[in-house]
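Researcher: Here's a chain I'd like modeled. Treat it as a single chain, no partners, no ligands.
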Amino acid sequence: MTREFQTSGAPHMPPQTTVAMVMLQVLLALVPGILAYTWFFGPGILIQIILATVFALLFEALMLRLRGRSLKPFINDYSAVVTAVLFALCIPPLAPWWISCIAMLFAIVFAKHLYGGLGQNVFNPAMVGYVVVLISFPQVMTAWLPPLTLAEHGFGLVDTLMTIFTGQVPLEGGWDVVTGATPLDTLKTGVESGRMVPEIRNSPIFGDFGGLGWEWIANWFALGGIFLLYRRVISWQVPLAVIGSVILLSVPFWLADPDSNPFPLQHVFSGAIVLAAFFIATDPVSGCVSNRGRLIFGAGVAIITLVIRRWGGYPDGVAFAVLLMNMAAPLIDRYTRPRMYGE
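Model: Modeled as a single isolated chain. Structure tokens:
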């Protein structure tokens, strides 16, 4: 039986993979997680994605014009869209519209084009934009919605649009009646106040392993990540190192003191660990190149995230961990270069 293989012209090598093809596959892999996010927390995430994408493309076009570059090949590579979507998935669904504007300004202009554009950036642009607005506007960036099954008031599309574009909640009681602490924030605050983890987890915002709703979102992002692995868009080293290190490092603490340290899967299925493992830390430009380097890079992201979650000032530290490891990536690559054949 003969098999047919897709080839290009002589010398009959496989068709070349373009940046646009890679980015489109990343966007496709994000769809299941986005749909799950919308199911559990409402349409706000879709509006944030649209806003961030519009601002990202505007700043991309502006910088290309200022740099004297043609718009078409760079606008059509979807890299700015991927940056926008990843950023939008990290912010509260009701964040005001100007949050996306400021974040994309720093992500596209400062973190991307001032370093030379696509392929030259040292830091992950989406995480740069996120960290800027998180540090600058902490109150806005911590106004998270509870899952729809726990929400006391229905929050439809019209109410969501009014809140995002006016900054005012169209309900009596304002922000206090529609927002609440995330599972990670609840856990961190409870442990610091002397409460035991089993007692804290009695709250209805927790699910079987992580946060209610959040664990399902993580599962669907993992499914998208497996698709990227199957398509060989990303390598397995970073996701394995991130998730594996989180579990391996948190097991001893949980066994030693389960009243103060959560079950390891609580770390995995709450916050942005799964999203970072498959979609953020796997950025080929700001990450490591060698296989050993990718393992070290992923382990570093996991370690720093756990340190910030346990002893830092933020409930989740994924963005800071990624940026710190971006700084270390060139040094890691230098000492993990594979030996040349014959040496």
